[in-house]
Predict the structure of Homoisocitrate dehydrogenase.
Amino acid sequence: MYRVAVIPGDGIGPEVIDGAVRVLKAVTGRVRFEYYEGGVDVFQECGSPIREEDLEEIRRSDAVLFGATTTPFDLPGYRSLILTLRKELGLYANLRIIPDLRTGREIVIVRENSEGLYFGIGAVVNGRAVDVRLITREGAERIARFAVEQAKARGSFITFVHKANVLTGDKFFRRIVREVAGEEGVEVRDAIIDSFTIKLVRNPWEHGVILSENLFGDILSDLATVHAGSIGIVPSGNYGDGIALFEPVHGSAPDIAGKGIANPIGAILSGAMLLDYLGLDGSLIRAAVRGYVVNGELTPDMGGRARTEDVVRGIIGEIEDLLSMDEVWRDEIRLSRLESDISRMAG
Ligand SMILES: NC(=O)c1ccc[n+]([C@@H]2O[C@H](COP(=O)([O-])OP(=O)(O)OC[C@H]3O[C@@H](n4cnc5c(N)ncnc54)[C@H](O)[C@@H]3O)[C@@H](O)[C@H]2O)c1
Ligand SMILES: CC(C)[C@H](C(=O)O)[C@@H](O)C(=O)O
Ligand SMILES: [Mg+2]
Protein backbone atom coordinates (compact mmCIF):
# COMPACT_ATOMS: atom_id res chain seq x y z
CA MET A 1 0.00 0.00 0.00
CA TYR A 2 1.40 3.41 -0.99
CA ARG A 3 0.81 6.49 1.13
CA VAL A 4 -0.01 9.69 -0.78
CA ALA A 5 -0.15 13.07 0.98
CA VAL A 6 -3.00 15.16 -0.46
CA ILE A 7 -2.86 18.96 -0.13
CA PRO A 8 -6.00 20.35 -1.83
CA GLY A 9 -5.18 24.02 -1.09
CA ASP A 10 -7.78 26.70 -1.74
CA GLY A 11 -9.74 28.27 -4.59
CA ILE A 12 -10.43 25.57 -7.16
CA GLY A 13 -7.69 23.36 -5.65
CA PRO A 14 -10.09 21.32 -3.49
CA GLU A 15 -12.59 21.05 -6.36
CA VAL A 16 -10.13 19.52 -8.84
CA ILE A 17 -8.24 17.41 -6.28
CA ASP A 18 -11.51 15.82 -5.18
CA GLY A 19 -11.96 14.61 -8.77
CA ALA A 20 -8.37 13.44 -9.08
CA VAL A 21 -8.57 11.35 -5.90
CA ARG A 22 -11.86 9.77 -6.99
CA VAL A 23 -10.32 8.83 -10.33
CA LEU A 24 -7.25 7.36 -8.61
CA LYS A 25 -9.52 5.28 -6.35
CA ALA A 26 -11.35 4.03 -9.47
CA VAL A 27 -8.14 2.60 -10.95
CA THR A 28 -6.28 1.27 -7.93
CA GLY A 29 -6.80 0.09 -4.38
CA ARG A 30 -3.08 0.28 -3.62
CA VAL A 31 -3.00 3.91 -2.51
CA ARG A 32 -3.95 5.37 0.88
CA PHE A 33 -4.64 9.13 0.97
CA GLU A 34 -3.77 11.39 3.92
CA TYR A 35 -5.00 15.01 3.77
CA TYR A 36 -3.11 18.12 4.92
CA GLU A 37 -3.97 21.81 5.11
CA GLY A 38 -1.68 24.56 3.87
CA GLY A 39 -1.59 28.19 2.74
CA VAL A 40 -2.44 31.58 4.19
CA ASP A 41 -4.77 30.37 6.97
CA VAL A 42 -2.09 28.02 8.32
CA PHE A 43 0.50 30.81 7.98
CA GLN A 44 -1.61 33.15 10.09
CA GLU A 45 -1.92 30.41 12.70
CA CYS A 46 1.74 29.32 12.92
CA GLY A 47 3.91 31.62 10.79
CA SER A 48 4.51 29.03 8.06
CA PRO A 49 2.26 27.98 5.13
CA ILE A 50 2.47 24.36 6.35
CA ARG A 51 2.67 23.02 9.93
CA GLU A 52 6.07 21.49 10.77
CA GLU A 53 4.53 18.28 12.06
CA ASP A 54 2.57 17.90 8.83
CA LEU A 55 5.69 18.55 6.76
CA GLU A 56 7.49 15.77 8.63
CA GLU A 57 4.66 13.35 7.83
CA ILE A 58 4.59 14.49 4.20
CA ARG A 59 8.34 13.84 3.93
CA ARG A 60 7.64 10.22 4.93
CA SER A 61 4.95 9.78 2.25
CA ASP A 62 5.52 8.02 -1.06
CA ALA A 63 4.26 10.98 -3.11
CA VAL A 64 2.29 14.23 -2.84
CA LEU A 65 -0.81 15.31 -4.77
CA PHE A 66 -1.18 19.08 -4.63
CA GLY A 67 -4.04 21.33 -5.76
CA ALA A 68 -3.21 25.01 -5.67
CA THR A 69 -3.08 27.88 -3.19
CA THR A 70 -3.59 31.60 -3.59
CA THR A 71 -0.44 33.65 -3.03
CA PRO A 72 -1.19 37.16 -1.67
CA PHE A 73 0.91 39.90 -3.28
CA ASP A 74 1.78 41.64 -0.07
CA LEU A 75 1.47 39.51 3.09
CA PRO A 76 4.67 40.25 5.06
CA GLY A 77 6.79 37.13 5.57
CA TYR A 78 4.57 34.86 3.47
CA ARG A 79 6.16 32.55 0.86
CA SER A 80 3.87 30.56 -1.40
CA LEU A 81 3.09 27.06 -0.16
CA ILE A 82 4.16 25.42 -3.42
CA LEU A 83 7.53 27.22 -3.31
CA THR A 84 7.94 26.19 0.33
CA LEU A 85 7.23 22.55 -0.55
CA ARG A 86 9.57 22.58 -3.57
CA LYS A 87 12.35 23.91 -1.34
CA GLU A 88 11.68 21.75 1.74
CA LEU A 89 11.28 18.54 -0.31
CA GLY A 90 14.25 19.31 -2.60
CA LEU A 91 12.15 19.22 -5.78
CA TYR A 92 14.62 20.63 -8.30
CA ALA A 93 13.00 19.42 -11.52
CA ASN A 94 9.56 20.49 -12.78
CA LEU A 95 8.23 18.38 -15.68
CA ARG A 96 5.26 19.96 -17.43
CA ILE A 97 3.62 18.00 -20.23
CA ILE A 98 1.21 20.00 -22.40
CA PRO A 99 -1.01 17.43 -24.15
CA ASP A 100 -2.95 17.61 -27.37
CA LEU A 101 -5.59 15.17 -26.13
CA ARG A 102 -6.98 14.53 -29.59
CA THR A 103 -3.74 13.55 -31.34
CA GLY A 104 -1.50 12.41 -28.46
CA ARG A 105 1.16 15.02 -29.27
CA GLU A 106 2.89 16.70 -26.31
CA ILE A 107 4.93 19.79 -25.57
CA VAL A 108 7.47 18.71 -22.95
CA ILE A 109 8.92 21.40 -20.71
CA VAL A 110 11.61 20.77 -18.09
CA ARG A 111 11.81 23.74 -15.76
CA GLU A 112 14.64 24.17 -13.29
CA ASN A 113 12.67 24.35 -10.02
CA SER A 114 15.00 25.53 -7.25
CA GLU A 115 17.20 28.41 -8.37
CA GLY A 116 17.19 31.44 -10.67
CA LEU A 117 15.17 34.37 -9.41
CA TYR A 118 13.27 31.97 -7.13
CA PHE A 119 16.30 31.31 -4.98
CA GLY A 120 14.87 33.93 -2.71
CA ILE A 121 17.63 36.47 -2.17
CA GLY A 122 15.83 39.79 -2.53
CA ALA A 123 15.71 43.08 -0.63
CA VAL A 124 14.70 46.74 -0.79
CA VAL A 125 17.46 49.04 0.44
CA ASN A 126 17.41 52.85 0.24
CA GLY A 127 14.72 52.89 -2.39
CA ARG A 128 16.40 50.17 -4.45
CA ALA A 129 14.94 46.68 -4.85
CA VAL A 130 17.14 43.75 -5.86
CA ASP A 131 16.42 40.06 -6.63
CA VAL A 132 19.39 37.75 -7.13
CA ARG A 133 19.19 35.32 -10.07
CA LEU A 134 21.35 32.41 -8.87
CA ILE A 135 22.60 29.59 -11.14
CA THR A 136 24.89 27.02 -9.49
CA ARG A 137 26.92 24.29 -11.17
CA GLU A 138 25.14 21.67 -9.04
CA GLY A 139 21.73 23.05 -9.97
CA ALA A 140 22.56 23.30 -13.67
CA GLU A 141 24.09 19.82 -13.84
CA ARG A 142 21.21 18.02 -12.15
CA ILE A 143 18.48 19.66 -14.24
CA ALA A 144 20.53 19.04 -17.39
CA ARG A 145 20.76 15.36 -16.45
CA PHE A 146 17.00 15.26 -15.86
CA ALA A 147 16.34 16.81 -19.28
CA VAL A 148 18.79 14.40 -20.93
CA GLU A 149 16.88 11.43 -19.45
CA GLN A 150 13.59 12.87 -20.71
CA ALA A 151 15.07 13.37 -24.19
CA LYS A 152 16.55 9.85 -24.29
CA ALA A 153 13.22 8.34 -23.16
CA ARG A 154 11.56 10.06 -26.13
CA GLY A 155 14.34 9.48 -28.65
CA SER A 156 14.51 13.23 -28.91
CA PHE A 157 16.74 16.28 -28.38
CA ILE A 158 16.85 19.28 -26.01
CA THR A 159 15.96 22.86 -26.87
CA PHE A 160 17.69 24.98 -24.24
CA VAL A 161 15.79 28.27 -23.94
CA HIS A 162 17.89 31.07 -22.43
CA LYS A 163 19.14 34.68 -22.67
CA ALA A 164 22.84 33.81 -22.85
CA ASN A 165 23.38 36.71 -25.26
CA VAL A 166 22.77 39.00 -22.25
CA LEU A 167 22.84 37.13 -18.92
CA THR A 168 26.04 35.81 -17.33
CA GLY A 169 24.06 33.14 -15.49
CA ASP A 170 22.65 31.77 -18.72
CA LYS A 171 26.07 31.73 -20.43
CA PHE A 172 27.23 29.58 -17.48
CA PHE A 173 24.06 27.43 -17.54
CA ARG A 174 24.34 26.90 -21.32
CA ARG A 175 27.94 25.64 -21.08
CA ILE A 176 26.94 23.08 -18.43
CA VAL A 177 23.88 21.87 -20.35
CA ARG A 178 26.06 21.28 -23.41
CA GLU A 179 28.71 19.51 -21.32
CA VAL A 180 26.21 17.11 -19.71
CA ALA A 181 24.21 16.42 -22.89
CA GLY A 182 27.41 15.96 -24.90
CA GLU A 183 28.57 13.24 -22.51
CA GLU A 184 25.31 11.38 -23.24
CA GLY A 185 25.23 12.04 -26.99
CA VAL A 186 22.03 14.10 -26.76
CA GLU A 187 21.68 17.02 -29.19
CA VAL A 188 21.14 20.49 -27.68
CA ARG A 189 19.59 23.26 -29.78
CA ASP A 190 19.77 26.91 -28.73
CA ALA A 191 16.72 29.18 -28.44
CA ILE A 192 16.75 32.74 -27.18
CA ILE A 193 13.74 33.24 -24.92
CA ASP A 194 12.19 36.30 -26.58
CA SER A 195 12.18 35.02 -30.14
CA PHE A 196 11.41 31.49 -28.92
CA THR A 197 7.99 32.63 -27.69
CA ILE A 198 7.07 33.25 -31.33
CA LYS A 199 8.19 29.74 -32.31
CA LEU A 200 6.30 28.23 -29.37
CA VAL A 201 3.11 29.98 -30.46
CA ARG A 202 3.46 29.22 -34.16
CA ASN A 203 5.15 25.80 -34.21
CA PRO A 204 4.76 24.20 -30.76
CA TRP A 205 5.29 20.48 -31.37
CA GLU A 206 8.80 20.41 -32.85
CA HIS A 207 11.09 21.48 -30.01
CA GLY A 208 11.91 18.15 -28.38
CA VAL A 209 12.40 18.58 -24.62
CA ILE A 210 12.29 22.29 -23.81
CA LEU A 211 14.68 23.08 -20.94
CA SER A 212 14.96 26.43 -19.21
CA GLU A 213 15.73 28.30 -16.03
CA ASN A 214 13.02 28.65 -13.37
CA LEU A 215 11.14 31.85 -14.26
CA PHE A 216 11.45 31.28 -18.01
CA GLY A 217 9.98 27.81 -17.51
CA ASP A 218 7.15 29.25 -15.44
CA ILE A 219 6.21 31.62 -18.22
CA LEU A 220 6.75 29.22 -21.15
CA SER A 221 4.66 26.47 -19.54
CA ASP A 222 1.60 28.71 -19.11
CA LEU A 223 2.05 30.09 -22.64
CA ALA A 224 2.24 26.56 -24.06
CA THR A 225 -1.09 25.59 -22.49
CA VAL A 226 -2.95 27.48 -25.22
CA HIS A 227 -2.05 24.53 -27.47
CA ALA A 228 -3.80 22.12 -25.08
CA GLY A 229 -7.04 24.06 -25.24
CA SER A 230 -6.93 25.17 -21.60
CA ILE A 231 -4.48 25.61 -18.73
CA GLY A 232 -7.01 23.50 -16.82
CA ILE A 233 -5.91 20.24 -18.45
CA VAL A 234 -2.12 20.45 -18.00
CA PRO A 235 -0.41 18.21 -15.43
CA SER A 236 3.03 18.45 -13.87
CA GLY A 237 5.48 16.55 -11.71
CA ASN A 238 8.00 18.09 -9.29
CA TYR A 239 10.91 15.69 -8.78
CA GLY A 240 13.99 15.58 -6.58
CA ASP A 241 16.17 12.73 -5.32
CA GLY A 242 13.46 11.42 -3.01
CA ILE A 243 9.73 12.10 -2.84
CA ALA A 244 7.86 13.73 -5.78
CA LEU A 245 4.93 16.13 -5.91
CA PHE A 246 2.26 16.16 -8.62
CA GLU A 247 0.04 19.13 -9.35
CA PRO A 248 -1.89 20.73 -12.18
CA VAL A 249 0.02 23.65 -13.72
CA HIS A 250 -2.86 26.04 -13.07
CA GLY A 251 -3.44 28.03 -9.95
CA SER A 252 -6.29 28.56 -7.52
CA ALA A 253 -8.40 30.44 -10.11
CA PRO A 254 -10.22 32.70 -7.62
CA ASP A 255 -12.32 34.05 -10.51
CA ILE A 256 -14.16 30.73 -10.86
CA ALA A 257 -13.68 29.20 -7.40
CA GLY A 258 -16.90 27.84 -5.92
CA LYS A 259 -18.80 27.85 -9.20
CA GLY A 260 -18.36 24.11 -9.83
CA ILE A 261 -17.01 24.65 -13.35
CA ALA A 262 -13.26 24.12 -12.85
CA ASN A 263 -11.68 21.73 -15.31
CA PRO A 264 -10.43 18.72 -13.28
CA ILE A 265 -8.41 17.15 -16.11
CA GLY A 266 -5.07 18.76 -15.20
CA ALA A 267 -5.34 17.39 -11.67
CA ILE A 268 -6.53 14.00 -12.96
CA LEU A 269 -3.59 13.72 -15.40
CA SER A 270 -1.26 14.77 -12.57
CA GLY A 271 -2.64 11.75 -10.71
CA ALA A 272 -1.68 9.60 -13.70
CA MET A 273 1.89 10.96 -13.50
CA LEU A 274 1.84 10.12 -9.78
CA LEU A 275 0.89 6.50 -10.50
CA ASP A 276 3.71 6.24 -13.07
CA TYR A 277 6.14 7.56 -10.42
CA LEU A 278 4.96 4.93 -7.91
CA GLY A 279 5.55 2.20 -10.51
CA LEU A 280 1.80 1.70 -11.02
CA ASP A 281 0.10 2.31 -14.38
CA GLY A 282 -1.13 5.81 -15.19
CA SER A 283 -1.93 4.96 -18.80
CA LEU A 284 -5.47 3.76 -18.02
CA ILE A 285 -6.30 7.23 -16.69
CA ARG A 286 -4.80 8.87 -19.77
CA ALA A 287 -6.80 6.58 -22.05
CA ALA A 288 -10.00 7.33 -20.12
CA VAL A 289 -9.35 11.09 -20.28
CA ARG A 290 -8.73 10.96 -24.02
CA GLY A 291 -11.81 8.82 -24.51
CA TYR A 292 -13.91 11.30 -22.55
CA VAL A 293 -12.50 14.41 -24.29
CA VAL A 294 -13.37 12.96 -27.70
CA ASN A 295 -16.96 12.06 -26.78
CA GLY A 296 -17.91 13.96 -23.63
CA GLU A 297 -19.14 17.45 -22.73
CA LEU A 298 -16.33 19.75 -21.60
CA THR A 299 -16.15 22.54 -19.03
CA PRO A 300 -16.53 26.21 -20.09
CA ASP A 301 -12.76 26.81 -20.35
CA MET A 302 -12.84 24.40 -23.29
CA GLY A 303 -16.02 25.79 -24.79
CA GLY A 304 -18.47 23.40 -23.13
CA ARG A 305 -21.22 23.63 -20.55
CA ALA A 306 -20.21 20.72 -18.36
CA ARG A 307 -19.61 21.09 -14.65
CA THR A 308 -16.58 19.70 -12.86
CA GLU A 309 -18.69 16.84 -11.51
CA ASP A 310 -19.90 15.87 -14.99
CA VAL A 311 -16.31 15.52 -16.23
CA VAL A 312 -15.18 13.53 -13.19
CA ARG A 313 -18.12 11.13 -13.48
CA GLY A 314 -17.59 10.84 -17.23
CA ILE A 315 -13.92 9.91 -16.84
CA ILE A 316 -14.72 7.41 -14.09
CA GLY A 317 -17.33 5.93 -16.43
CA GLU A 318 -14.68 5.58 -19.15
CA ILE A 319 -12.41 3.82 -16.64
CA GLU A 320 -15.17 1.45 -15.61
CA ASP A 321 -15.88 0.66 -19.27
CA LEU A 322 -12.18 -0.05 -19.91
CA LEU A 323 -11.91 -2.20 -16.78
CA SER A 324 -15.02 -4.17 -17.79
CA MET A 325 -13.45 -5.16 -21.10
CA ASP A 326 -11.39 -8.31 -21.47
CA GLU A 327 -7.65 -7.74 -21.25
CA VAL A 328 -6.91 -7.93 -24.97
CA TRP A 329 -9.67 -5.56 -26.11
CA ARG A 330 -8.86 -3.13 -23.26
CA ASP A 331 -5.22 -2.97 -24.27
CA GLU A 332 -6.27 -2.45 -27.89
CA ILE A 333 -8.40 0.56 -26.89
CA ARG A 334 -5.91 1.83 -24.36
CA LEU A 335 -2.92 1.72 -26.65
CA SER A 336 -4.82 3.11 -29.63
CA ARG A 337 -5.44 6.24 -27.58
CA LEU A 338 -1.94 6.59 -26.26
CA GLU A 339 0.42 7.20 -29.16
CA SER A 340 2.66 9.28 -26.94
CA ASP A 341 2.88 6.52 -24.35
CA ILE A 342 3.70 4.00 -27.07
CA SER A 343 6.44 6.17 -28.55
CA ARG A 344 7.83 6.76 -25.05
CA MET A 345 7.78 3.01 -24.28
CA ALA A 346 9.39 2.33 -27.65
CA GLY A 347 12.15 4.67 -26.50
N1 LIG B 1 0.59 25.66 -7.68
C1 LIG B 1 0.03 26.74 -7.15
O1 LIG B 1 -0.26 26.82 -5.96
C2 LIG B 1 -0.25 27.92 -8.06
C3 LIG B 1 0.08 27.91 -9.42
C4 LIG B 1 -0.23 29.06 -10.16
C5 LIG B 1 -0.86 30.16 -9.59
N2 LIG B 1 -1.15 30.10 -8.26
C6 LIG B 1 -1.86 31.19 -7.59
O2 LIG B 1 -3.20 31.20 -8.07
C7 LIG B 1 -3.72 32.54 -8.00
C8 LIG B 1 -4.33 32.91 -9.35
O3 LIG B 1 -3.28 32.92 -10.29
P1 LIG B 1 -3.58 33.20 -11.85
O4 LIG B 1 -4.90 33.84 -12.02
O5 LIG B 1 -2.37 33.87 -12.39
O6 LIG B 1 -3.56 31.76 -12.52
P2 LIG B 1 -4.68 30.60 -12.55
O7 LIG B 1 -4.07 29.45 -13.24
O8 LIG B 1 -5.24 30.38 -11.20
O9 LIG B 1 -5.86 31.20 -13.48
C9 LIG B 1 -5.58 31.72 -14.77
C10 LIG B 1 -6.88 31.67 -15.62
O10 LIG B 1 -7.11 30.30 -15.99
C11 LIG B 1 -8.35 29.86 -15.50
N3 LIG B 1 -8.18 28.50 -14.97
C12 LIG B 1 -7.13 28.07 -14.23
N4 LIG B 1 -7.29 26.78 -13.90
C13 LIG B 1 -8.48 26.40 -14.44
C14 LIG B 1 -9.22 25.17 -14.43
N5 LIG B 1 -8.76 24.08 -13.82
N6 LIG B 1 -10.42 25.15 -15.07
C15 LIG B 1 -10.89 26.24 -15.70
N7 LIG B 1 -10.24 27.42 -15.76
C16 LIG B 1 -9.04 27.49 -15.12
C17 LIG B 1 -8.73 30.82 -14.40
O11 LIG B 1 -10.14 30.88 -14.25
C18 LIG B 1 -8.12 32.13 -14.87
O12 LIG B 1 -9.01 32.79 -15.75
C19 LIG B 1 -2.53 33.44 -7.61
O13 LIG B 1 -2.59 33.71 -6.24
C20 LIG B 1 -1.32 32.57 -7.91
O14 LIG B 1 -0.22 32.88 -7.07
C21 LIG B 1 -0.89 29.02 -7.49
C1 LIG C 1 2.36 30.21 -7.59
C2 LIG C 1 3.74 30.49 -8.17
C3 LIG C 1 4.70 30.71 -7.02
C4 LIG C 1 4.17 29.30 -9.01
C5 LIG C 1 5.54 29.58 -9.66
O1 LIG C 1 5.82 30.74 -10.00
O2 LIG C 1 6.27 28.58 -9.82
C6 LIG C 1 3.20 28.99 -10.15
O3 LIG C 1 3.13 30.04 -11.09
C7 LIG C 1 3.60 27.72 -10.86
O4 LIG C 1 3.76 27.75 -12.10
O5 LIG C 1 3.73 26.70 -10.15
MG1 LIG D 1 3.27 29.46 -13.09
Notes: The two ends are 30 Å apart (CA to CA). The chain has two domains: 1-92+237-346, 102-227. Residues 342-347 have pLDDT under 50 and may be disordered. Residues 290 and 297 are 12 Å apart (CA to CA).
